[in-house]
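user: Kindly work through both lines:
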Amino acid sequence: FSFIYDIAAAGADAPKTPLDLIDPKWKGKIASRYPHDDDATLYLFTKYVEKYGWEWVAAYAAQDNQYLRGGLAVDAVVAGQRTIAVGVGGSPLQSATSPTKLIVPDGHPFIAWGQRAAILKQAKNPNAAKLYLNWQLSTARQQTTANGWSVRTDITPPAGMKPLWEYPDVHLDFPQFMADRAEVERLKQTFALYFGEVTGDATPGWLGLHPGA
């Protein structure tokens, strides 16, 4: 998780760090996930607070940002409605024709974590589950991950990338952060003082696990 920008719209003076996001020239040009909506975005903004202080949050909140849920911040950039999307996932791997760029800032925080998977003890088809997880962890699959990084330490990242844990400014302790629910709720309520309550559907058009419930 970090931020992306529209290469053509941002131009030569594109933002390079989270500090650039509070520059007045980007006022009204940022689509942002609510910092206090989901745990991942909360974790990212918590790292911003630790690095830059709550003064940065106040300046960011004054940028006339468009606050959205789920992947809608990226959609706003792709649609040309905003130039920057903050609090979003992505990959530093991109083609020469990619319209957007993900920032992995040097000297500034970004976050990453390995996705968890498990086979339930009473799974109806445990052999199928084992087959699926074996495929997910296979060398061929791990060498073609969407963001370029594997959860396996023996898989070398693509050219130009280091193993994730060698980036000094990446924060990998997201599971530990999520485990302290009292602190998570305290931070959510604090961010709400700056950004108001979260509104809107989490993922419009997606009915979820129990549609109509």
